[in-house]
């Protein structure tokens, strides 16, 4: 699988406690992205954050599981990301979804210099 040099980064901000059916929302998103053959997905867990409600979510010692922030990042071609958006919309109840254009320098084993034209 190859990603074009000009791609999109889909970034999805949810809470650790958000669900899609019986499973965590972030897990459902990653599994659906894999099922739809997107190039890859990464889940990042934040130690602190807040969203629309301004309620602070933190991993302080006395509050270890307070619905910590989760970010799912997916990079692929614009066509594949845009095809995924309606599926994502059906899965999410709340959260923040952003898109940004990115330049892919390396995906897989090609060297950075080779992909960026520096070689």
From TrEMBL:
It holds the Pfam family DUF190. It comes from the Bacteria. Belongs to the UPF0166 family. This is DUF190 domain-containing protein. The lineage of its organism: Bacteria, Pseudomonadati, Pseudomonadota, Alphaproteobacteria, Acetobacterales.
